[in-house]
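User: Let's play a game. I give you a shape written as tokens, and you guess the letters that built it. Ready? Here's round one.
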């Protein structure tokens, strides 16, 4: 036999279930309203019903046909239904289940009776009656049987029945059919017409004309003719007339009065009904008195008809069946299995099979190629119910059929012998010729006792049934794989059936390789297969669950949909599991009991799995492989791909598997499936639980600890192997030399080893040794692979799981074991690395080898990893351990008042009116918005560039990118809170209303005032006149507002519907709601969690369910500020004592605590990823990155325990920051000026702080060495200037007493921003934005000034590269050469720079004889970070052709600039001026992502920090040819060296750094960092 591939749907059903729309809010008032328990499945598919004759029910041996005919305006279904519910369609739903009608076949007849449709299809009663007769006479059910016919008609339907019967009696061809009509039931039939019909015709005559409406008029000609003719043919008929006794609505009289509703015949039974014209045939329940009257009448008729069947005929039929059963040896009851599956099937289910092409061909086809269909499915996927559905469909369609349901373990139902005998008996009952043939065999003495299946097949079928001229017949076999001996006989049976035999076969079985191999292939007997998928049965399962959950009393109507969804999710397509679980749920009385039922293996699944394992145990080969496959599939953290499983098995059992997918199906196919994506999964979750339960004695059951230990060892063996070895030289860029193709198992091993490790046996020495070896050898390669996957969460998960394993190991070993301490340190390192170095790892994973470890704390394991071979070193600033504090910003002159995180920024609103924006990742200052008054509230509009700032008077909406105001409004009086909800901006006022603006409106931005108080509020919560809220919370996710007043409980207000919802509060000991003063309120942001956290003035922190007004938790916390994390998991609480506590929101379990200085915490805020926490206190804003949040936010399934950590952190008071830096000309020491006014000395080699040289009273701004004098010039923030001699002594070294040479001051309101020393001239220059000033270097006395009042700005003064008596000034417009002695201008060149950029800094450098100026530019309207560098050819700044010594005075042609000079824009005679056009070819602009220029190395490389905090460089000695850049910027090769952690620059607007030889000096807080060897690491990029 040959098999064809499974077919696809002709019209595939939707793969997604329609789900009820989620509620707008958990707090919505509508939640409390009751909802209908009716499910969509309980509604009829067609409320009216189809036209024509429709079969509603057919028993196996019908004796009577009921035909229901509707009346005017009715339909084949609607007339007989009280409502659209399918259960109200009583002819189909009630009568078939009534034992009194077990032999009754039921039909309904529909025709077009809607009088409002117009003139088309205008039929009268005569034509409708004729159509009715035609439908009956051609029905295969009625035509091919000898049943008696009973017709039941409502209203005009009675006339149609009479007319059809009259026509049948008049035509000879219908004589036999007419004789079968035995009884007529008339329900409110207008035998003499209806007054309502006359009225109706008058009303509709203008527009419509329905002939049959006129037929119903009183005493109409058509009615009279029908009555007269029926009187002559009704002899012998049983007649029942039921008439109405109540008026319909809008009618003043009966539609059909009693006189017209009865025939008046002598033999007629006339019965009144307490109903109107419409309800006379519609009933609410089977207990309805009117239904009881009609039912009893129908029973009476049925009883009479069955009593009239000749007793001799019945006796003869019984004897033939008895003889057949005796000859064939079949039991008395045959259809118990069919009845069971039919009863189990939900109405409306299994219809998907009718859309399958192979099924349709099998059912309707005529050729032999498609006569056999094999339906395959996994265990418990509803195959038996589906087989029952197929049988029922064949029955309803009038086809001849036979069936058999195999059942494993039941000898009477598991043998092919019993199946063949049952088939033969059913075919004999269906076909008289077959029955006669068997009885003839019996008469000839043929005995079937003790014959085998082959002989039975030959006698009964080959020599018996197949020799008759029987019509087409269908065989349906269920669970053929449960037949004990199908292998020997069934294939032979199929092959022996020729195409002339009109038998079509369908069988179901589990989808197993062995079963598939048992059928030989043959072109003469093809078998088409159809696989049952989860998508096929999804709708059936939904129907089953939806219907059954309606009867679960323990679940409320609002929760049923969620429970149903959960059941469907867990079912994995298993009907058996679903049915068993639903049965157990009926016995549940609590939510915990429901959850337990859903988690356990339901009773009834164990026998199925036990039988599968028994069959697997009988296999002679492959048991070890099968056990290993089950272990990996059952215990894997996620479904493995077939290639991953192949790698795992290869390492586990040291073998190879060329056709693993086939092996999996053959060895474990009933328990393991491979989906279309190649993922290997258990057939159902209960199969996994059964294998792990340990209750079975099967060799395939799994010990979970042993399995995870073995799997962890396999993963670790791979991670310790050659593929994972790190590069030998630990250099960046070496990743390219690593294996380009790793095993497919590598990804699973890298991401999942820690999962298995956390569940492994902690006492297993081999596992512990593998862990230590991995952490010592290949962990950096593992981190690189994880970073390359772009999902660093694996590092943090590994940290948590490793901690679980280490804790377990610590119980087995000494806590002082160095190995345990090392493992514990790794758990911390793995959590911190992604937090601190995500930027670098995501961009360049190979940085983990050499660039990242040097920046980690010195006691961390990652710092020590590969330290001996690492060339890069960081000295002077590293902590010993990790710190949870990410940054601390001190605003000094202003107080932070508002704090808010957006998607990309952290905003801090200040009392000065400024709002400072910081990047949410790097915390470098981005922009300052000037609101104009103290800012009390900030709100970001999600997923946009808009931020709103609110003060007491003004509300502004800004575009963050441009820094411009988009909208400006007047703030409502005394604002209390502000929130965005889509395009709507809401501000709450202390005057008890919300002011809202629809920013998405293009028409008007007029505010809407919405009070939150109305007449429906109880007096206990309604604010008193003029009452002021003491606390308020707005929730856009819940569309709710919570507001508290002094002496009142908390009021809940629905902001969407503007209605009062309820009140809540903590509970007193008496049970009453507290009215204590509320300090702070916050909603859980998760819309699915309806919780409210509240702090009270008495120090209590309460967790409330506000909708139910229930207190869940309450304790003394002494907190005043609250904040909820965006993911809804955490609640932060801070108070006056400076302590911040972080709790789990839903339990208030403490996770984290930080104790700092005793300053009042004004506000808290979580970052958008819920892993960072910011607070404002005093003049500071601090951002924390607690390890507890990093781990908790990820969640994990590796442990049922919640990770908790209580952390005590030192005071947040920061060290004095470094504000200026300069290297000694010998490069031996570095001098740093600090924000506390101190001037400190650091050793360049180690970065060690040698001590303080001297102090200013104000923060140091600028430093400059005077090498020839061994002196240091320092400038402070108050414009104080000091010069100290700093020399190294033999005794005290560099810290010998510093001698002050002079102390001076610039008397100006402008701050000094630049300083330059001219040793040869004996002067130094200081510069402000508006002026430049010359001082004597000998005495510090002021000499002269040059003003720039008309063009203020930043100017950078540089030493002239060729003349020590001259200096160069760069101001963004031009570069000029001046004389030191009098600031006279010598020469200048124009700079072709755009107006949109400003000068930030400039420096001069030399490459051989070439002199260049590097100009650093910034875009003030975009960011504080610069994005351009220009290189100027300084050779064009030629000095005077003849230098004049200072004693000889100055050139008479140059005007002296002294204090009386008023303008720096004069035209100095004798000055050499070069226009911009001449300069242009000698200026090279470079477009680079530069945050700060660090310096120019002596080799000619420009070293800078880019915006991603990478230290980079470009080679200026090999700049592109100047002629190639006439039209634009240069294409340059940028070299990336190493990454600097972004927290080093947190809170800083200006970066203080220096380049000393090849060492880079950076500052971190109050310390100096020396980074040595960093420039040796390189990765080149081409940047346009």
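Assistant: Ready! My guess for every position:
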């Amino acid at each position: 036999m040959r098999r064809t591939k499974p077919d696809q749907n002709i019209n595939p059903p939707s793969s997604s279930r329609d789900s009820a729309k989620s509620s707008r809010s958990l707090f919505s008032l509508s939640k409390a309203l009751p909802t209908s328990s009716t499910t969509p499945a309980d509604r009829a598919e067609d409320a009216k019903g189809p036209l024509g004759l429709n079969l509603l029910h057919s028993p196996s041996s019908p004796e009577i046909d009921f035909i229901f005919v509707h009346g005017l305006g009715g339909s084949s279904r609607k007339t007989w239904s009280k409502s659209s519910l399918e259960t109200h369609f009583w002819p189909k739903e009630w009568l078939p289940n009534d034992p009194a009608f077990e032999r009754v076949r039921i039909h309904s007849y529909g025709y077009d009776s809607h009088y409002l449709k117009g003139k088309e299809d205008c039929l009268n009663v005569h034509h409708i009656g004729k159509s009715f007769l035609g439908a009956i006479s051609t029905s295969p059910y009625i035509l091919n049987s000898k049943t008696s016919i009973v017709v039941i008609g409502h209203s005009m339907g009675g006339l149609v029945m009479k007319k059809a019967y009259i026509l049948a009696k008049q035509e000879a061809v219908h004589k036999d059919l007419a004789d079968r009509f035995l009884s007529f039931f008339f329900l409110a039939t207008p035998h003499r017409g209806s007054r309502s019909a006359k009225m109706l015709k008058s009303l509709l005559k203008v527009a419509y004309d329905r002939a049959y409406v006129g037929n119903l008029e009183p005493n109409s000609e058509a009615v009279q003719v029908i009555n007269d003719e029926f009187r002559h043919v009704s002899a012998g008929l049983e007649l029942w007339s039921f008439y109405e006794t109540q008026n319909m609505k809008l009618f003043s009289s009966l539609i059909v009065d009693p006189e017209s509703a009865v025939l008046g015949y002598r033999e007629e039974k006339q019965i009144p009904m307490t109903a109107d014209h419409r309800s006379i045939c519609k009933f609410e329940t089977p207990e309805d008195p009117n239904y009881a009257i009609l039912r009893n009448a129908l029973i009476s008729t049925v009883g009479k008809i069955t009593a009239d069947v000749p007793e001799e005929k019945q006796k003869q039929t019984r004897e033939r069946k008895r003889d057949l059963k005796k000859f064939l040896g079949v039991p008395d009851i045959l259809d118990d299995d069919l009845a069971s599956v039919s009863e189990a099937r939900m109405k409306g289910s299994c219809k998907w099979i009718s859309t399958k092409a192979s099924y349709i061909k099998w059912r309707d086809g005529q050729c032999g190629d498609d006569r056999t269909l094999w339906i395959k499915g996994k265990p418990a996927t509803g195959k038996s119910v589906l087989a029952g559905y197929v049988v029922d469909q064949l029955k309803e369609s009038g086809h001849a059929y036979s069936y058999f349901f195999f059942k494993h373990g039941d000898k009477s139902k598991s043998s092919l012998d019993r199946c063949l005998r049952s088939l033969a008996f059913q075919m004999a009952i269906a076909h008289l010729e077959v029955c006669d043939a068997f009885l003839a065999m019996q008469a000839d003495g043929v005995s079937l006792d003790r014959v085998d299946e082959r002989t039975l097949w030959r006698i009964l079928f080959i020599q018996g049934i197949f020799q008759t001229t029987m019509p087409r017949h269908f065989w349906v076999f269920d669970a053929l794989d449960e037949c004990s001996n199908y292998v020997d006989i069934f294939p032979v049976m199929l092959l022996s059936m020729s195409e002339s035999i009109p038998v079509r076969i369908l069988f179901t079985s589990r989808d197993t390789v062995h079963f598939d191999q048992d059928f030989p292939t043959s072109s003469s007997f093809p078998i088409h297969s159809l696989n049952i998928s989860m998508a096929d049965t999804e709708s059936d399962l939904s129907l089953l669950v939806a219907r059954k959950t309606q009867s679960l009393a323990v679940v409320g109507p609002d929760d049923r949909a969620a429970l149903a969804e959960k059941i469907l999710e867990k079912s994995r397509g298993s009907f058996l599991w679903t049915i068993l679980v639903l049965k157990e749920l009926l016995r549940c009385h609590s939510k915990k009991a429901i959850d337990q039922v859903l988690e356990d293996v339901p009773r009834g699944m164990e026998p199925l799995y036990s039988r599968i394992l028994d069959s697997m145990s009988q296999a002679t080969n492959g048991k070890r492989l099968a056990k290993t496959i089950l272990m990996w599939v059952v215990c894997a953290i996620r479904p493995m791909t077939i290639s991953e499983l192949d790698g795992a098995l290869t390492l586990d059992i040291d073998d190879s598997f060329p056709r693993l997918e086939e092996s999996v199906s053959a060895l474990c196919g009933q328990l393991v499936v491979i989906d279309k994506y190649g993922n290997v999964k258990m057939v159902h979750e209960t199969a996994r639980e059964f294998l792990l339960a340990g209750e079975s004695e099967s060799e395939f059951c799994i010990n979970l600890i042993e399995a995870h230990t073995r799997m962890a060892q396999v993963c670790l063996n791979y991670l310790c192997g050659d593929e994972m070895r790190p590069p030998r030289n630990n250099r960046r860029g070496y990743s390219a030399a690593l294996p380009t193709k790793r095993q497919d198992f590598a990804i699973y091993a890298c991401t999942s080893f820690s999962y298995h490790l956390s569940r492994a046996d902690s006492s297993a020495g081999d596992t512990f040794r593998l862990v230590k070896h991995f952490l010592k050898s290949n962990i950096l390669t593992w981190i690189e692979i994880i970073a390359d996957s772009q999902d660093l969460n694996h590092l943090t998960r590994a940290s948590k799981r490793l901690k679980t394993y280490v804790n377990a190991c610590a119980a087995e070993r000494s806590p002082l074991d160095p190995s345990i301490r090392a493992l514990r340190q790794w758990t911390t390192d793995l959590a911190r690395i992604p937090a601190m170095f995500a930027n670098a790892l995501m961009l360049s994973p190979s940085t983990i080898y050499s660039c990242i470890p040097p920046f980690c704390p010195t006691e961390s394991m990652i710092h020590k990893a590969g330290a001996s071979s690492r060339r890069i070193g960081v000295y002077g600033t590293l902590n010993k351990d990790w710190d949870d504090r990410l940054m601390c910003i001190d605003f000094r002159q202003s107080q932070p008042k508002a704090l808010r995180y957006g998607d990309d920024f952290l905003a801090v609103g200040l009392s000065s009116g400024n709002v400072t924006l910081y990047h949410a990742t790097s915390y470098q200052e981005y922009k300052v918005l000037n609101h104009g008054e103290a800012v009390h509230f900030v709100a970001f509009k999600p997923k946009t560039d808009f931020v709103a700032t609110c003060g007491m008077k003004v509300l502004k909406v800004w575009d963050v990118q441009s820094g411009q105001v988009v909208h400006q409004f007047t703030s409502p009086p005394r604002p209390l809170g502000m929130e965005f909800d889509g395009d709507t901006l809401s501000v709450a006022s202390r005057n008890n209303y919300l002011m809202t603006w629809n920013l998405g409106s293009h028409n008007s931005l007029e505010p809407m005032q919405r009070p939150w108080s109305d007449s429906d509020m109880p007096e206990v919560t309604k604010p008193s006149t003029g009452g002021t809220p003491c606390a308020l919370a707005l929730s856009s996710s819940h569309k709710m507002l919570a507001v508290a007043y002094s002496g009142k409980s908390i009021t809940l207000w629905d902001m969407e519907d503007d209605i009062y919802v309820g009140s809540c509060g903590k509970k007193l000991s008496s049970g009453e709601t507290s009215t204590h003063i509320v300090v702070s309120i916050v909603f859980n942001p998760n819309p699915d969690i309806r919780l409210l956290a509240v702090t009270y003035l008495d120090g209590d922190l309460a967790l409330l369910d506000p909708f139910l007004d229930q207190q869940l938790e309450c304790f003394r916390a002494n907190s005043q500020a609250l904040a909820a994390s965006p993911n809804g998991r955490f609640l932060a609480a801070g108070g006056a004592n400076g302590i911040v506590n972080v709790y789990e929101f839903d339990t208030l379990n403490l996770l984290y605590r930080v104790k700092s200085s005793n300053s009042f915490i004004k506000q808290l805020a979580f970052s958008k990823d819920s892993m960072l926490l910011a607070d404002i206190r005093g003049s500071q804003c601090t951002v924390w990155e607690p390890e507890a949040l990093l781990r908790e936010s990820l969640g994990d399934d590796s442990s049922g325990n919640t990770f908790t950590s209580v952390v005590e952190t030192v005071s947040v008071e920061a060290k004095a920051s470094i504000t200026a830096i300069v290297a000694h000309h010998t490069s031996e020491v570095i001098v740093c000026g600090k924000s506390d006014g101190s001037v400190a000395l650091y050793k360049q080699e180690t970065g060690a702080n040698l001590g303080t040289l001297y102090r200013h009273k104000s923060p140091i701004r600028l430093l400059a060495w005077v090498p020839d004098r061994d002196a240091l010039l320092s400038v402070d923030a108050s414009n104080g200037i000091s010069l100290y001699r700093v020399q190294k002594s033999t005794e005290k070294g560099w810290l010998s007493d510093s001698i002050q040479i002079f102390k001076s001051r610039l008397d100006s309101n402008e701050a000094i921003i630049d300083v330059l020393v001219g040793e040869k001239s004996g002067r130094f220059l200081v510069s402000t934005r508006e002026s430049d000033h010359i001082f004597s270097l000998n005495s510090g006395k002021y000499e002269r000034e040059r003003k720039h009042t008309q063009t203020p700005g930043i100017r950078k003064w540089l030493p002239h590269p060729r003349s020590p008596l001259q200096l160069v000034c760069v101001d963004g417009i031009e570069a000029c050469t001046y004389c030191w002695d009098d600031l006279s201008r010598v020469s200048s060149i124009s700079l072709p720079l755009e107006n949109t950029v400003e000068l930030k800094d400039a420096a001069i450098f030399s490459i051989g004889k070439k002199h260049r100026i590097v100009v650093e530019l910034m875009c003030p309207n975009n960011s504080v970070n610069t994005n351009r560098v220009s290189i100027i050819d300084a050779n064009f700044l030629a000095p005077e052709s003849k230098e004049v010594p200072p004693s000889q005075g100055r050139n008479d042609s140059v005007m002296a600039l002294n204090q009386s000079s008023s303008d720096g824009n004069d035209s100095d005679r004798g000055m050499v001026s070069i226009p911009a056009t001449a300069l242009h070819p000698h200026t090279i602009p470079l477009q680079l992502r530069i945050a700060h220029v660090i310096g120019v190395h002596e080799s000619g490389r420009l070293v800078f920090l880019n915006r991603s905090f990478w230290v980079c460089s470009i080679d200026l000695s090999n700049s592109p040819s100047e002629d190639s850049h006439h039209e634009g910027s240069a294409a340059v090769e940028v070299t990336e060296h190493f990454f600097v952690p972004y927290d080093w620059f947190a809170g800083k607007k200006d970066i203080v750094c220096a380049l000393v030889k090849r060492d880079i000096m950076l500052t971190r807080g109050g310390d100096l960092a020396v980074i040595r060897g960093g420039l040796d690491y390189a990765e080149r990029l081409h940047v346009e």
